[in-house]
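Re-run with default settings, no changes from the original entry. Doing this only to confirm the output is reproducible before filing.
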Amino acid sequence: MIDNLLARLEKIIGKLSKKESLSTPLLAVEFGVSTKVIRSDFNHYILPYVKEVKYDYSTKHYTSETFFLESHPFTPKEFAIMLIVKFKFSENSIGELFDDYKLSLENALYTKRLSEPLNSKTDPILIENAIKENILIGCEYNGKQRKLFPLKIM
């Protein structure tokens, strides 16, 4: 059941992140489930946690106002897993995971930019570890190799 839910949410989030307009009946046919299941997916997993996604009552479609997955380093599958975990567990027990997500949205270091792509999804984790352990790290900045002691992510 979780695998089916994960597959549905992954595809739905992928489509919404591309600003596709999605109708409940068409999604139900695509995934071979009832419209009630699709509405439940949106009402329990997506709408409460993804502020960019809205339901348009005039067209009866779900839409996204932005390309929201382009602004952080999560894939649709990773994002779907976070939504499932968020729904299944209490706010206190899973708060750190979503704090990291919120940080990724607000922090330029975590943000993917067309001119400055992250080399790896582990880069922010490596920097955080270097801060905690006071380790010298290397990076390339303006075409030059640099070595530095990171103090804080801002």
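Residues 107 and 154 are 7 Å apart (CA to CA). The radius of gyration is 18 Å.
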